[in-house]
Amino acid sequence: MPVGGIACQRHGNCCPLGVRADCDGWCANGGGQRPPAVIAIGVVVTRMTLLAEPSPFLDSRAEVEAVLAARARFAIRLVLLVLLVYAVADWVAHHHVVTALWLIAAGQVAALGCAAALLRGQPSRKRTVVVVLVTMAVVQWSGVLSDALSANPMATLFSAVGAAMATGAVFPWGLLPQTVLALIVMVTGTLSFLFVPVDPGAAAYLGTMCSMLVGASVLVAHANEQVRCQRAAAEERLWATTQRAESEARIATVLAHASEVLAAHLDEPDMLDRLHAIAREALAVDWSAALILEPDSGNYRLVAAAFERPSLRREALQMEFPASWLPMVKPEGTFELPDLRAAGPVRPLLERLSASSALGAPLWCRGHLLGVQMHGHHSRTGPFSAEARRLAAGLAHATALAIENARRIVALEAASRLKTEFVATMSHELRTPLNVITGYTEMLADEVLGPLTPTQRDTLARLRRSADELLELVNATLDVGRLEAGRVAVERRAVDLGTLVAELDVELRPVLSPGVVLRWHVDDVPRMVSTDRGKLKTIIKNVVGNACKFTPQGAVDVQVAWQTGELEIVVRDTGIGIPAEQLPHIFDMFRQGDGSATRRFNGVGLGLHIVRRFVDLLGGTIAVQSTVGTGTCFTIRLPTPMALVVAEASCATG
Q1: Would 258 be classed as within a structural domain?
Q2: Coil, helix or strand at residue 56
Q3: How far, in Å, are 296, 349, 364, 393, 396 from residue 346 at the CA level?
């Protein structure tokens, strides 16, 4: 039985020992702050022969009664042994009155026998206390008569004081019974001094000493009671703290598992079904479901569920429920429906779900009600535990965030598709007039429409370069749109590296700054390689063009090499370099080193992003090293099977 929290039936006070009992006037301070003194149990501070094996913490009324009765029976046997010793001593020392002494002893034995008979079996606490006190009074007061006959006032008094000390230390009966026993001992001492002549000084000394010892026994009993109460309160606090910690640990484990599942399956249609399967198992319920509030109709629609019976789940997923069936939904906290018969307006909902009880939590996110999450049983009724309510609230919060995130993902994907379609359409529409401009520019440059002056020819060259830059920007935008839409395929075929390098040299020379040298190194490489020509050309052109644009003086060196089935392209320049903090981001879309409106170099930041995407499509890698003020080096490696290259090269030469 858990420690603490059971009220006294008479006074209504909470007993920290967790023992329910009727105090019957034994509550200290009128049933005020302490538990019933008779049943205050705890650690016995003194181990004496009177105890068999003391229980360190007794937490039930039956155990208290059993221990108290066992110790009382043991005390009776011990008193019988003491009487036997006194009988032998009387026969030796007081043989002239031994008959009278033995008659008194026989009466005492009879009283002890009656007490033992009354304490057989499982006597109640009240009976044990009364029997012990009455028996002690009979034995001690009759012992006074024996002392009077034997002219020995010390025997019974000392025995009574010893018994009081022992019971105060080991009897689990608290303050008030021990006080009554102390009064009995004091009466015993008073009678001894009245019936047996004793020196007044010695009587005063002995009375004071015995009173102090008996009073000490009361204090010991009271101290033991306080220790037991404090021990019980500490046990209660420890148990409550442990229970809370274990409960929170279980809740945290379930919520962590639920978060992992939600994160792993956020974009999958069965995300909520997986979550409710976890909820059904964690809450030990028969069903778990999520009802989403439709903003158009104002009704709840069941969108995900985990039922013990799959057929019921199929039926439930087609249901809609009016909002009036769930009037108790509030922004915070959970609501409980412990019994279908008292469910009120929610009863139709529970009947359609074949539920007998339910625990619900609202799905709130950013001040908006998304729906309701409910868990319940098909046959069991009754309230849910506090741990179940906290867990339901945590699961509802995680579910609301998951639903909101899933909706945002859907909205973002729709916006991304719309953006991609718009960019593709606009880029396509821009290419048509650009082609016309480029065509007429070529006609003017070829003097089809008449001779040109040097100034006119220079102007046409500038116009042609600007048109080509704009066309490259449009093509790059189209490439990005196709990459985002996943419509880019790899078309491998034999590619002549010499021809490709020659084309790139012609196209890149116009972008070089005055005084900058572009050098190509393509020695010791196969003439033909198998790859996607368009993507390889775009990769090299974008990287080399980027190097030419950011190299105001010096040289740009391009080295193409072949190493064990791998095409390696190294582009090294003596340009301005890239700061170290910008290196991790240079392949991001629309990322430029200088993004201001007054930047020195033009462009929109798509070139290196397309390079990275094309390298990934071809199964290669790209690395970059740079030092500000010294230059930058790009290393591109693209795998190509050697056998394929050799075969294609042989076919080309043949």
Answers
A1: no
A2: coil
A3: 22, 5, 20, 20, 19
Domain final residue, candidates 199, 222, 238: 238
Are the CB atoms for 517 and 556 separated by under 8 Å? Answer: yes
136 and 81 together in one domain: yes
- Pick the closest to residue 63 from 627, 71, 441 (CA basis): 71
pLDDT value of position 399 = 87
Asked whether residue 613 falls in the same domain as residue 506, the answer is: yes
How large a percentage of the chain has pLDDT more than 90? 11
Cβ atoms of residues 330 and 411 within 8 Å: no
pLDDT at 157 over 50: yes
Q: Are residues 70 and 215 in the same domain?
A: yes
Q: Three-state DSSP class for 183?
A: helix
Residues 449 and 476 in one domain: yes
- Strands, DSSP E only, in 493-630? 493-496, 516-521, 528-531, 554-562, 566-573, 621-627
What CATH number does the domain containing 504 carry?
A: 3.30.565.10
Number of residues written out for the chain: 654
Nearest 10 degrees: CA dihedral of 185, 189, 194, 200? -160
Among the ranges given (311-315, 424-428, 498-502, 585-589), the one the predictor scored with the smallest mean pLDDT? 311-315
Query: Can you say whether the dihedral through the CA atoms of 221, 222, 225, 227 is positive or negative?
Result: negative
Q: Are residues 589 and 458 in the same domain?
A: no
- Dihedral of alpha carbons 646, 494, 609, 412, sign: negative
CATH of the domain at 400: 3.30.450.40
Residue 461's alpha-carbon distances to 169, 452, 465, 618, in angstroms, are 114, 12, 6, 36
Top-ranked range on mean pLDDT: pick from 2-6, 236-240, 410-414, 536-540: 536-540
pTM over 0.85: no
Domain count, the chain: 4
Q: Taking Cα atoms as reference points, which of 118, 203, 89, 217 lies closest to residue 157?
A: 203
Residues 473, 343, single domain; the answer is no
pLDDT digits (tens, 9 = 90+) for 473-520: 777 777 777 777 677 788 888 888 888 899 899 888 888 888 899 999
Q: What is the mean pLDDT of residues 145-173?
A: 82
**Considering 397, 413, 429, which residue would you say is the last residue of a domain?**
413
Q: Check whether residue 284 and residue 372 sit in a common domain.
A: yes
Element (H or E) spanning 537, and its range? helix 533-549
In a domain, residue 251? The reply is: no
Alpha-carbon distances, residue 296 vs 225, 293, 299 (angstroms): 68, 9, 8
Residue 613 Cα distances to 346, 504, 538, 620, angstroms: 56, 20, 11, 10
| Residue at 65 is within a domain | yes
Helix (H, G, I), strand (E, B) or coil at 344: helix
- Is residue 361 a part of any domain in this protein? yes
> Do residue 545 and residue 613 come from a single domain?
yes
Q: Which domain range does residue 444 map to? A: 416-481
8-state DSSP, 332: S
* Token code pair at residue 548: 């030419």
Q: Is the pLDDT of residue 13 over 60?
A: no
Q: What does 414-451 look like in DSSP terms, one character per residue?
A: HHHHHHHHHHHHHHHHHHHHHHHHHHHHHHHHTTTTS-
